[in-house]
Prior knowledge:
By secondary structure, the chain is mostly helical.
Amino acid sequence: MKGITMQELLTSFEGRIGRGKWWLGAVVLIVFSIIFAIVVGLLFGDGIIARLLTLLLTFAVLYASAALATKRLADRGTPAMPRLVIFFGPSILFSIIDTFRIGYRAAPEMGGMGMNGAMMPGTIAMTLGFISLVVSIWALVELGILKGDAEENRFGPPPA
């Protein structure tokens, strides 16, 4: 996979990639997501249209993230399932809950600080957000920090 293109990096579930390629793909997805969020925020504010567009972006980024994670886990000699479900499941649930404001409540008036109409996540959303954070840290360590297998494994030769 030495001459892997960005498209293959973000869409293919075959082969192995090292930490450097994983970080490259992760940074591209993060930068793209930030730019998208800024543009959507400027065009649509915090309304339902913005939240739905952000949810669609979440699923698109999820696909690319799963492709990156699958190849990185293969480099470590680990099958992708069930880790992909563990790594991404809480974040998907949190994104859906956040998009539709499930379990949210109106924020208390903040003494004229412009909080009228603001919504605060409830216990379920806060708990899922915390679980997502913890699992994301685990995924970051496993995918971005720990070394892959130096030798050929059942997923193929080591990346060049």
